[in-house]
Design brief:
CATH topology of the largest domain: Immunoglobulin-like
Largest sheet: 5 strands, mixed
CATH architecture of the largest domain: Sandwich
Number of strands: 21
Helix content: under 10%
CATH superfamily of the largest domain: Macroglobulin (MG2) domain
Shape: globular
Low-confidence stretches: 4-36
Strand order of the largest sheet: 1-18-17-20-21
């Protein structure tokens, strides 16, 4: 799996490896910190984990996304290992189980992580057919392992996507596969075939989301924007009471049809989603880099009235030839 964070084409890893990428360190959109006078170790710099091409000699915040810089090496290509196990080993749908994850650099267990989007470890559980999406956060134990209690809603083939930033290194995305013991299907034939939506408007939990793309159509190998315009389903009035969720007024994960490319994005700052306002909306814009043409699915989460609502849309990033027709 390849991971591309908003507004950067720096390659990170995927389903089975690691490499450098871009995440944001928390708290998101924090006030600018005073400059540090302590020299950093050789090979390290201050950088924006969401936009790793933005570096600085002192602490501060990213001029693009306003997220706090972190000290590290955005081009760190260390091959971190991830020990992944479940208890019980045979997982069945509807039955609680424990996921255990240990991050290693060689034989050494990594126990220090930067806070990213208000958490030090993000875990995405996505079914092969993309009908199941969960965004959860394991807990670090004294042993150095991360643990999460989970229950899968149906038998099947799942991708368990880890997203974290080791202190002093670069952001990582590592995915492990999980197949339930009661799955009788065929993983290859169950691979999703995304049919792009024709109407980009949905209503859930009393809120209507309408998505606009810029540029239209999106272009492979270029940065693009997905802008959500939110209205109250009952009154038709613009939503202006989004609550902060993971340090911002929304959270987006975009995955390609083959589940090999991931775009992980938080809103780009503007007047409508300035975290200092306390409440956000109705316009929330996300930025991403789409490495290849093809079909993608997006899951975008908003917090309103203490309830998380996840909107999902499917869309196509055309080839250059298709875009110019």
């Amino acid at each position: 799996m390849t991971k591309f964070h908003a507004a950067t084409a720096v390659l990170t890893i995927g389903l089975i490896g690691t490499a450098a990428g871009g995440l944001s360190t928390g708290p998101s959109y924090a006030a600018q910190e005073p400059a540090s006078t302590t020299p950093l170790p050789a090979g390290m710099t201050w950088y924006c984990p969401m936009h790793p091409e933005i570096t600085a000699a002192v602490t501060g915040q990213c001029p693009i996304c306003k997220m706090a810089f972190v000290a590290g090496n955005p081009l760190d290509t260390r091959e971190y290992e991830l020990d992944f196990s479940t208890s019980p080993a045979a997982v069945r749908a509807g039955t609680p189980f424990t996921i255990t994850l240990t991050v290693k650099d060689g034989d050494e267990a990594i126990t220090r992580f930067e806070e990213v989007h208000d958490k030090r470890y993000h875990l995405f559980i996505i079914s092969r057919d993309m009908t199941v999406f969960e965004h959860v956060h394991p807990v670090l134990k004294a042993s150095g392992a991360w643990e999460l209690e989970a229950t899968l809603p149906k038998a099947g083939y799942y991708n368990i996507v880890s997203d974290f930033l080791p202190t002093g290194g670069a952001p990582q995305v590592i995915t492990r596969e999980l197949i339930t013991a009661d799955y009788n299907g065929d993983a290859l034939s169950d691979q999703v075939k995304i049919e792009p939506d024709t109407i980009f408007e949905k209503t859930l939990n009393g809120m209507t989301a309408r998505v606009e793309f810029d540029p239209k159509p999106l272009q492979a190998g270029e940065h693009g924007h997905l802008t959500y315009n939110l209205t109250d389903a009952a009154t038709g009035q613009p939503v202006a009471d989004l609550q902060p969720y993971l340090g911002a007024f929304g959270h987006t994960l975009i995955m390609s049809e083959d589940q090999a490319n991931v775009v992980h994005s938080h809103p780009t700052p503007d007047i409508s989603n300035d975290i200092s306002r306390g409440l956000g909306g109705p316009r929330v814009m996300f930025e991403g880099y789409f490495p290849i043409p093809g079909e993608y699915r997006v899951w975008t989460q908003f917090l309103r009235h203490d309830q998380i609502t996840t909107f999902s849309f499917a869309f196509r990033v055309p080839t250059l030839e298709e875009a110019y027709r």
